[in-house]
Every structure is written in C-alpha cells, then in structure tokens.
C-alpha cells in the first residue's frame, strides 16, 4: 500500500498496441503513527504524503509530525497491519514497495459535479418529447408512494441531488510500468478524481 497523486492520462505503445495509461506520482511516504492493540485496541500505521505549509497545520498535527521527525504532510491515511513491530516511526516507503505486483486497486475522490438531475445522476430516460408534455421533459416523475396511507417518499428513492465528490475504488488495474527513479507508476485505464487528486494504491484483493 502507498499513497500517491494523479498526474494525468497519456498513452504508450507496447507490442504494436496503443494502451491508455494513467500516470501516478507515488513519491516517498512517511509513517507518522504506529498504533498497537495494547494501547489503541488495534494494529495500524498512518502513512503521510504531500508537503504542506507549517502555518496551515494545526498544533496537534504538528506534534504528530514532530514526533515522527517529518515535515508537515497534506494527505494522511491509516491502514491496518498484522504486525506493527515490522514498521518504524518516520520510516520511508517508496514506490518500489509495489514492484512485482501486476494488479492494483486504486481509491480516490471522484470529481464533484454539484447538484444534478435524475437523467444525469441516475441515467433516467426522461419524459416524452412530444405534444402534451408540459415543461417536465427531464423530471423524475412522482416521488410518493401508491396510497394515502403510504404517501411518503420511499427510503432510497432515486432523485435529483449531489453528484460525485465521493470515494470511488477501481479494482484490478494492470500495472504497465514502474519508474522508481522518478517515483512514477503507470496503470492501464482511468482512475478516480481530477488531476493532482490524491489516491490510495493497494495490491489487488481479487487477483491471485
């Protein structure tokens, strides 16, 4: 597992085939916390990535970074581990930790699209575009239940609302290339989020 940042998409040629790839900067991660079952009730480590100004960092966060001996970081993520004794506070983790792995699962925050209607958000077909339909071509139809005793909106009803800006995980992305010198990782296909969005990269759980 490692934290990274989405640089963007490009394409490469391999065996006379064009492959769309996403370039991910998986720079040096630092272990800023180690949690044990004796003290916190579970075993975990916290990885930190991406530089951050000290003046934009809270005092509790500064204390954590100072204890680990690292500069303030922007993106932190906690991972459960089997044996926390295998790790050290302030330890560096680089992209070569993924070397030899053919498939990865990548999580990120999808692009936020604001408030969207049911056609964009849930792929509704919309109303008829013929005569007699009065200004509700893109509306979602009735929201209520079928009887007076149940005329409330059912839980989970597909309606207009906020679209995007949520955690998305794409599984089984093929690793195309490692560039350890420049801390770059190339994976086949697209990953969630905008350019410069932060990502969590793990070994695939469904590939053997």
From TrEMBL:
Start and end residues of each stretch annotated as Disordered: 126-158
InterPro entries xref list: Ribosomal_uL3, Ribosomal_uL3_bac/org-type, Ribosomal_uL3_CS, Transl_B-barrel_sf
Pfam families, alphabetized: Ribosomal_L3
Keyword rRNA-binding belongs to the record: yes
Keyword RNA-binding carried by entry: yes
GO process terms (BP): translation
Single GO MF descriptor: rRNA binding
Cellular component terms per the entry's GO annotation: cytosolic large ribosomal subunit
UniProt entry keywords in alphabetical sequence: Ribonucleoprotein, Ribosomal protein, RNA-binding, rRNA-binding
Family membership noted in the UniProt record: Belongs to the universal ribosomal protein uL3 family.
Assembly: Part of the 50S ribosomal subunit. Forms a cluster with proteins L14 and L19.
Function: One of the primary rRNA binding proteins, it binds directly near the 3'-end of the 23S rRNA, where it nucleates assembly of the 50S subunit.
Record-linked NCBIfam families: L3_bact
Protein name: Large ribosomal subunit protein uL3
Gene coding for it: rplC
């Amino acid at each position: 597992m490692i934290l990274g940042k989405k640089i963007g998409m490009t394409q490469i040629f391999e065996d006379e085939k064009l492959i769309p790839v996403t370039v991910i900067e998986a720079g040096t991660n630092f272990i800023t916390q180690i949690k044990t079952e004796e003290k916190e009730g579970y075993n975990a480590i916290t990885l930190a990535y991406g530089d951050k100004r000290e003046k934009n960092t809270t005092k509790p966060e500064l204390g954590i970074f100072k204890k680990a001996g690292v500069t303030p970081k922007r993106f932190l993520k906690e991972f459960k581990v089997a044996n926390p004794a295998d790790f050290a506070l302030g330890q560096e983790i680089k992209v070569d930790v993924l070397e030899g792995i053919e498939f990865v699962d990548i999580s990120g925050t999808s692009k936020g699209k604001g408030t969207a209607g049911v056609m964009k958000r849930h792929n509704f077909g919309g109303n008829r575009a013929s005569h007699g339909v009065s200004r509700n071509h893109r509306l979602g139809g009735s929201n209520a239940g079928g009887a007076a005793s149940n005329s409330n909106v059912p839980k989970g009803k597909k309606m207009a609302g906020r679209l995007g800006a949520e955690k998305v995980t794409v599984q089984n992305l093929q690793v195309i290339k490692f560039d350890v010198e420049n801390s770059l990782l190339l994976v086949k296909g697209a990953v969630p989020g905008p350019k410069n969005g932060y990502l969590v990269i793990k070994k695939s759980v469904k590939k053997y």
